[in-house]
């Protein structure tokens, strides 16, 4: 039953995450926090953070992480399989139609409608992650209205660096970890 | 695409090469997503000459417009093109295995890992970092939507954002509604066009962009 739930949840995530990258994030959030009590918001933020640091698609990372915590190794395999299955089916179908109806205007129009929605959903999942990142822990050094000042400073530095220099995001995250980590430990 | 059939290499060998290539690519694409396309092009077009460059670009467009992870979608297509169904299956295995192994190890040690004071501090710093990475992605993609100057797109983006924040709706419905709105507007444009007037430019940007 649990395996079936894991499979079905990640099947839906695989089927409805359009646009790659962080597009799966809002769907994962909904499935594993809101619809099922599988992760806390803090654990979800950790998951997104770890996914940003490790190779591979975020949906597969999430499937493995959640699967193992809920149902051990078999849970991870079932969740990953559920996540990949819709891709395989749809991509094969679409490849067939694509080469036949490449210029199909309605298909293009539908995808054009999806794209802004995906951006909005990524933004809203970013709000969830940001809430965890910015919430001050008990006895933190530099806080205001429950907001963690160190996190805000690290966020602003990282964001400006990303906008101006376009560095590899993994390097930015390593830098944020080093800077933030040192600040939390020593201040 | 037919010349590979004349190749002396067996299918088994091809599958093994596909597995090794996708495993290697997946293990080294951090952050996932579209990064995989240039890497696959280097391997399968430039190194092995199994795929044409144009084929690779078409595959990228399909992988991008299909649901699911772009990396998985692109591997399925390339694997199938190179070695048929066994090729597609080995490509999936190669793509999924590295994150599966890495995340398994991390998950098993997560509790011990998380309660370490140093790890917790570094992770907290990284959370601010990933928030910045997501914000950067949103600003780039959102900027593209605004610059496209299509009022429908901007409205859909604002509406979808407000809906996810304030309404308890399943995000799947939001995606379906926005896709339907796109089809509806495309259909109206097409209908106006077939009536003779309104030569409208096509939505050519689609499918070419991260």
Topology:
The complex is a heterodimer of chains A (187) and B (210).
Chain A: H1 2-16, H2 25-35, H3 41-53, H4 58-100, H5 105-134, E1 143-144, E2 147-148, H6 149-165, H7 169-186
Antiparallel strand pairs in A: 1-2
Helix pairs in contact in A: 1-2, 1-4, 3-4, 3-5, 6-7
Chain B: H1 11-28, H2 36-47, H3 53-65, H4 70-115, H5 117-147, H6 151-166, H7 171-194
Structure in words:
- The complex is a heterodimer of chains A (187) and B (210).
- Chain A has 2 domains: 2-134, no CATH class; 136-187, no CATH class.
- In chain A, 79% of the residues lie in helices and 2% in strands.
- Chain A has 7 helices and 2 strands; from the N terminus they run αααααββαα.
- Chain A has a two-stranded antiparallel ribbon.
- In chain A, α1 (2-16) packs antiparallel against α2 (25-35), α1 crosses α4 (58-100) and α3 (41-53) crosses α4 (58-100).
- Chain B is an all-alpha fold.
- Chain B has 2 domains: 3-112; 117-194, no CATH class.
- Chain B has 7 helices and no strands.
- In chain B, α1 runs antiparallel to α2 (36-47), α2 runs antiparallel to α3 (53-65) and α3 crosses α4 (70-115).
- Chain B starts with 10 loop residues before the first helix and ends in a 16-residue tail after the last helix.
- At the A-B interface, α1, α2, α3, α4 and α5 of A face α1, α3, α4, α5 and α6 of B.
Main traits of this protein?
heterodimer, A: 187 residues, mainly alpha, 2 domains, two-stranded antiparallel sheet, 7 helices, 2 strands, 79% helix, 2% strand, B: 210 residues, disordered C terminus
Largest protein interface, residues of each chain: A-B, 105 and 100 residues
Please report the distance between the alpha carbons of the first and last residues of chain B.
Answer: 27 Å
- Strands of the biggest beta sheet of chain A: in what spatial order? 1-2
Largest sheet of chain A: 2 strands, antiparallel
Over all CA atoms, what is the radius of gyration of chain B? 22 Å
* Percent range of helical residues of chain B: over 70%
Average predicted confidence as pLDDT of chain A? 85
* Gyration radius of chain A, rounded: 19 Å
User: How many β-strand stretches of chain A?
Assistant: 2
Helix content of chain A: over 70%
The oligomerization state is heterodimer
How many DSSP helices of chain A? 7
Order of helices and strands of chain A: HHHHHEEHH
Task: Give the structural class of chain B.
Answer: mainly alpha
Profile the largest sheet of chain B: none
Task: List the domain count of chain A as a whole number.
Answer: 2
């Amino acid at each position: 039953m649990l395996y079936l739930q894991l499979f079905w949840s990640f099947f839906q995530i695989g089927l409805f995450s359009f646009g790659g990258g962080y597009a799966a994030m809002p769907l994962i959030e909904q499935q594993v926090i809101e619809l099922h009590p599988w992760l806390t918001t803090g654990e979800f933020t950790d998951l997104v953070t770890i996914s940003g640091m490790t190779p591979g698609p975020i949906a597969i990372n999430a499937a493995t992480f959640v699967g193992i915590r809920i149902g051990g190794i078999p849970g991870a395999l079932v969740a990953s399989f559920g996540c990949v299955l819709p891709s395989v089916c749809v991509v094969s179908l679409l490849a067939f139609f694509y080469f036949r109806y490449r210029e199909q205007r309605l298909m293009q129009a539908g995808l054009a409608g999806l794209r802004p929605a995906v951006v909005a959903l990524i933004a809203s999942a970013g709000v969830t992650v940001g809430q965890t990142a910015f919430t001050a822990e008990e006895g933190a050094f530099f806080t205001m209205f429950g907001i963690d000042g160190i996190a805000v400073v690290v966020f602003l530095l990282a964001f400006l660096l990303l906008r101006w220099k376009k560095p590899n995001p993994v390097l930015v995250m390593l830098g944020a970890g080093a800077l933030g980590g040192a600040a939390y430990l020593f201040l | 695409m037919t010349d590979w059939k004349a190749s002396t290499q067996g299918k088994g060998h091809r599958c093994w090469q596909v597995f090794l290539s996708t495993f290697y690519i997946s293990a080294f694409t951090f952050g996932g997503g579209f990064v995989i396309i240039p890497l696959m092009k280097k391997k399968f077009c430039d190194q092995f000459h199994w795929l044409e460059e144009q084929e690779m670009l078409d595959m990228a467009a399909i992988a991008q417009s299909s649901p699911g992870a772009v990396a998985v979608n692109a591997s399925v297509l390339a694997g199938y093109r190179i070695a048929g169904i066994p090729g597609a299956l080995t490509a999936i295995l190669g793509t999924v295995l590295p994150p599966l192994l890495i995340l398994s190890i991390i998950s098993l040690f997560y509790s011990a890992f998380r309660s370490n004071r140093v790890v917790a501090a570094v992770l907290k710093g990284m959370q601010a970092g990933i928030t910045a990475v997501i914000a950067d992605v949103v600003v780039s993609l959102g900027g593209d939507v605004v610059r496209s100057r299509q009022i429908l797109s901007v409205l859909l983006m604002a509406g979808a954002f407000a809906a996810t924040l304030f309404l308890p709706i399943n995000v799947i419905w939001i995606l379906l509604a926005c896709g339907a709105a796109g089809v509806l507007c495309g259909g109206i444009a097409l209908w106006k066009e077939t009536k003779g007037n309104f030569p409208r430019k096509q939505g050519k940007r689609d499918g070419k962009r991260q």
